[in-house]
Design brief:
By secondary structure, this protein is α+β, with helices and mostly antiparallel strands. It folds into 4 domains: 124 residues, N Utilization Substance Protein A, Chain:P, domain 4 (2-Layer Sandwich); 61 residues, Nucleic acid-binding proteins (OB fold (Dihydrolipoamide Acetyltransferase, E2P)), CATH 2.40.50; 97 residues, K homology (KH) domain (GMP Synthetase, Chain A, domain 3, 2-Layer Sandwich), CATH 3.30.300.20; 98 residues, K homology (KH) domain (GMP Synthetase, Chain A, domain 3, 2-Layer Sandwich), CATH 3.30.300. 33% of the residues lie in helices and 28% in strands. The strands form 4 sheets. A 6-stranded mixed sheet has the order 17-16-15-14-13-18. A 5-stranded mixed beta barrel has the order 5-6-7-9-8. Strands 1, 2, 3 and 4 form a 4-stranded mixed sheet that branches. Strand 5 and strand 6 form a beta hairpin. Helix 9 runs antiparallel to helix 11. It is elongated. The two termini are 70 Å apart.
Length: 401
């Protein structure tokens, strides 16, 4: 009824990766459905694929009875023995139906099923390929905009770069190349959805991993990233080899490695900071290029009170609070930053009045007022000497690009 399907099934299984049994079962189900519609569900039908002739055959099952009450589901003994001489009362006979009456419908149904199963296999293949690639970089071509979202062609699949995952000052046109971070891979009724991001902190980490062999080899670890997309990022790095400077490795000869990352991020500034298990030292590095006078550490509250010279306060806080905000996110501690003058005023009023709050930043809640609990000051370390390569990329404000 559907022509010889053997060649078609073999081709689909080979080229599209569709499971043969699943495809045959779907064909049988679809042809049976077409037959039931033809006969208005009045008969007891079954459909079976016959590989010898490459067709789905439909059989009508009837029960052998002495007196027929339902001509669609019963047959008398005399007629039954014409089909099967050994038939007895109570036997169930399966007789092949002449499919000429609905062969066109069956052929169309078979075609639709094959197309559907091919699409399902392709979707499943895409999902299997990308579900374990979350956190990777991918290159694609912008195909179109859909309500502010970018549809990106990855070659084997299309991905979406949602408006919320785009950097506000970046723009794309159809045909532009885009490099992005795989943030999510979801499986929906419409198939897999690959969600890309240009704002994710992981994009910065992945770009450095692709540019710095020492990171890929595990010699240098990227301990943390804090980011305000399109403006500035801070990354903390640590070396497992005493002979390898982690900052210098990320900067590269004459700043080549970090500059490649900056170019990919379209000019976003990057501060590369040495990570330390000593939170006071780590905080001082994170606030660079500002100098720090002393640090009070409250481990119980994960809070730091950091004192800086008066002329360093605005530098430590940064434009619109960006420097201290990124530092707090990077170290994941609450930071209360004060000038020397504010700190002296706080010390004088500590005995009887309310302490003078500095500029307080919580890594989760952002800026807030209210001083941190003071403990004994930690030793403020000398800033580490910059490597020759690192010195080449320090900007006029003292920050690394």
């Amino acid at each position: 009824m559907t022509g010889n399907l053997n060649h078609i099934i073999d081709q689909v299984v080979k080229d599209k990766g569709v499971n043969r049994d699943v495809l045959i079962e779907a064909l049988e189900s679809a042809v049976l459905s077409a037959a039931n519609r033809k006969y208005r569900n009045t008969r007891d039908l079954e459909a079976h694929y016959n590989p010898e002739i490459g067709e789905v055959e439909v059989f009508e099952f009837v029960t052998v009875v002495e007196e027929v009450e339902d001509s669609y589901k019963q047959i008398n003994l005399e007629e039954a023995r014409e089909a099967d001489p050994d038939a007895q009362i109570g036997d169930e006979l399966g007789m092949k139906i002449d499919a000429s009456n609905f062969s066109r419908i069956a052929a169309q149904t078979a075609k639709q099923v094959i197309i559907q199963k091919v699409r399902e296999a392709e979707r499943e293949g895409v999902y299997k390929e990308f579900k374990d690639r979350v956190g990777e970089l991918v290159n694609g071509i912008v195909r179109r905009y859909e309500r502010g979202d970018l549809i990106v062609d990855l070659g084997k699949a299309e991905a979406i770069l949602p408006h919320r995952q785009q950097v506000f000052r970046e723009s794309y046109r159809q045909g532009d190349r885009v490099r992005a971070y795989i943030a999510e891979v979801n499986l929906s009724t419409k198939g897999p959805q690959i969600v890309l991001s240009r704002t994710h902190e992981g994009l910065v980490a992945a770009l450095f991993a692709s540019e710095v062999p020492e990171i890929a080899e595990g010699i240098v670890e990227l301990k943390g990233v804090s980011r305000e997309p399109g403006s500035r990022s801070k990354i903390a790095v640590f070396s497992n080899d005493r002979d390898v400077d982690p900052v210098g490795a990320c900067v590269g000869m004459r700043g080549s490695r970090v500059q490649n990352v900056v170019t990919e991020l379209r000019g976003e500034k990057i501060d590369i900071i040495p990570w330390s298990s000593d939170i006071a030292q780590f905080a001082c590095s994170a606030l660079a290029p500002a100098e720090v006078t002393r640090v009070y550490v409250d481990k119980g509250e994960r809070s730091l009170e950091i004192i800086v010279p008066d002329d360093q306060l605005s530098l430590a806080i940064g434009k619109k609070g960006q420097n201290v905000r990124l530092a707090a996110k990077l170290i994941n501690w609450r930071i209360d930053i004060k000038s020397e003058t504010q700190a002296r005023a706080a010390e004088e009023e500590e005995g009887g009045g309310e302490r003078v709050p500095g500029y307080v930043v919580d890594p989760l809640r952002g800026e807030e007022k209210g001083p941190a609990q003071r403990s004994e000051p930690a030793t403020v370390p000398e800033p580490p000497a910059a490597s020759d390569d690192a010195a080449d990329v320090v900007d006029e404000n003292g920050g690394n690009h």
